[in-house]
Amino acid sequence: MSYKSDIEIARQANKKPIQEIGAKLDIPTEHLLPYGHDKAKISQEFINSVQDNKNGKLILVTAINPTPAGEGKTTTTVGLGDGLNKIGKKVAICIREASLGPCFGMKGGAAGGGYAQVVPMEAMNLHFTGDFHAITSAHNLLSAMIDNHIYWGNTLEIDQRRVTWRRVMDMNDRALRDIVTSLGGVPNGYPRQTGFDITVASEVMAILCLATSLGDLQKRLGDIIVATRRDKSPVYCRDIKADGAMTVLLKDAMQPNIVQTLEHNPAFVHGGPFANIAHGCNSVMATTTALKIADYVVTEAGFGADLGAEKFMNIKCRKANLAPSAVVIVATVRAMKMNGGVAKKDLGTEKVEAVSAGCPNLGRHIDNIKSFGVPVVVAINHFITDSDAEIQAIKDYVAAQGSEAILCQHWEKGSEGTVELATRIAEIADAGMANFAPLYSDDLSLFEKIETVAKRIYRADEVLADEKIRNQLKEWEDAGYGHLPVCMAKTQYSFTTDPNRRGAPLGHSVPVREVRLSAGAGFVVVICGEIMTMPGLPSVPASENIMLNDLGQIEGLF
């Protein structure tokens, strides 16, 4: 039996005007600012008008550590949202916007798949409503103004060796990780070593996703530390006088985007920080607005639960005063087999023992999520090669962990394939079983917070950090930043910092390579192992197969 590709399914979608989609959440037409016929931004006036509404129930979708076999977290997020709608619930889906880096690199887009997709798929995975371009422009405006200030006399006495603000672009380009700027003589300024990060790793991206209003946005932008003086005192974005212009560039980008699923249900798509190098959640503006106008909000957090879900709980929920009612962990039979030692080429063959051998990775994620006081359900994202015995092996394992696993066939059947999951999640959310609390308190030291995540989530024996890093953390504490949460930058493929160690390893250490203070976003980034804030393209990037066909349609996006 042959199946249509994701882009073929999306292209054949019978989309409704975005005004009809907004009406499902009682958003008046005049408060939808259309970008074409099938996507719109929601006006700030409408967002302000619903703030006194009661909050709906928040449901987080996360996953096991990703493998080349595929897990389908966004697909399951969309499928669960459609399933809840199918059983008569008023639901909004909240996901992140796609970065061009993965689209043209290796991972692909971020719009779901099969019959559990958000459309317009091509627009969402490319330029969409221009939010990422605005973030890139605002970030690089600040970069230009810093160098310009130094060129024209440096009245702030910035130490040119200690300019910490880099530049960004929304593409994987390893050649730009470490560069020297301003070569070519006096007219071009003072040469210095710097580099590029990918846009999704920008502090401006994190700020946009955590800000609660335009006023809050400008304050946070002003709080960005861009450099230090020779006396080690910080230089802020507001000292450069860039915060106002940056806010202007981000004014429209701050407004959440609304689109639709293939089943014409509303989806908010806004913000896009990666969970391996940033906090990995869609915007607070989108989530909190959705909670005011829907009875259930289904959102996702990037990569595995050790990254995205941990940061959702410890950063986003802490900062925005949110509390999830239930968590869904997505797993696949194929991924369990890979964790159990099966090669990718052999995943189509039944291997029940390998499924069982790979399940401890899932078990650790279940245990970790429960430590936040939230009930957990496992969604087994179905592949046609899965055998009944393999599926039952996962169900039995999860039951032994005190949770339940439900088979989901949304990729093939849309909402019909998630009715059982949706029904159970609604029961759990309505029963008020959650007793959510972040993993650590604000008053722990920064290094103790790092140790808490490393030991309780990754199950590491110790954190390795040299004296320079420990002293830097202490300096930030002395400067008043000790209350901030930590944002761990780590490989998504393993609980360890070694991407090749699958399963649920013990007896490992977490080496901290660098720490960065994101004073505007409100967290400390902790860069562990060999993780890069500017990814590179693979040997055969997806972009080699992306093109226009004879009909002018896009081919190769996935």
What fraction strand? 15-25%
Tell me the distance between the termini: 20 Å
Unreliable segments (pLDDT under 50, ≥5 consecutive)? none
**How much helix is in the residues?**
25-40%
Oligomer category: single chain
Give me the secondary-structure category: alpha/beta
The major pleated sheet works out as: 12 strands, mixed
Beta strands, count: 25
Rounded to the nearest angstrom, the radius of gyration is 23 Å
| Coarse shape | globular
Please, what is the average pLDDT? 95
- Total number of helices: 20
Any descriptors?
globular, four-stranded mixed beta sheet, 20 helices, twelve-stranded mixed beta sheet, single chain, 558 residues, alpha/beta
Offer a quick outline of the entry.
The chain has 558 residues and is α/β, with parallel strands linked by helices. The chain is 36% helix and 19% strand. Helix 7 (131-151) packs across helix 8 (203-210) and helix 7 (131-151) runs antiparallel to helix 11 (243-250).
